[in-house]
Design goal:
Order of helices and strands: HHEEHHHHHH
GO molecular function: lipid binding
CATH superfamily: Tetraspanin
CATH class: Mainly Alpha
Largest sheet: 2 strands, antiparallel
Shape: elongated
Organism: Jacana jacana
Helix content: over 70%
CATH architecture: Orthogonal Bundle
Number of helices: 8
Strand content: under 5%
Protein name: Tetraspanin
Family: Belongs to the tetraspanin (TM4SF) family.
Radius of gyration: 24 Å
Structural class: mainly alpha
Number of domains: 1
Distance between the termini: 35 Å
Subcellular location: Basolateral cell membrane; Membrane
Amino acid sequence: LAGGIILGVALWLRHDSQTTNILYLQLGDKQAPNTFYVGIYILIAVGAVMMFVGFLGCYGAIQESQCLLGTFFTCLVILFACEVAAGIWGFVNKDQIAKDVKQFYDQAFQQALVAESETNNARAVVKTFHETLDCCGPDNALQPFSPLWREDLCPKKDSLQKINWKSSSCHKKIDELFSGKLYLIGIAAIVVAVIMIFEMILSMVLCCGIRNSSVY
């Protein structure tokens, strides 16, 4: 059940419309940075393996097999070590993920201002960012300037919403998007780790109980 829950959360994060709309973009020959998906794929793998390992442990408990329970414990230790490693990697790279996406957006934004839309897809990339995140321009574009590019690249706003353009920085929206998603991944990883610790303890208790009972 825990493996199924983790797998479901990971698949939901993987197919979330906001992240997929952004991370599948391509600017010329350059692909949008998709380092974020590394953590998602790890969660998917952990969830799928947990389901299989859970079945192995359940079957071993029913059969009172020390071999199966020992294998179950070993698999849990390996999964736990992989999860700890993935958690450390995610903590180290949590700021870099948003930074890479912001750099990709800035590059597309600069090209959209100077390149012809017929020969470059930068405008389409920027518009996708703006429509997906409901934002308008990077931080350094929020100073007084000619509003012509806003009319062309930003989502259509009514007169009341135009007043709030200054608070709609795409850099801020990108930070909010990935910090929220990484927060969910972190919660899922902690839940899995706690469940794994209890599983390892209980499997060893059960294995030792079976071994002691066989003596009599």
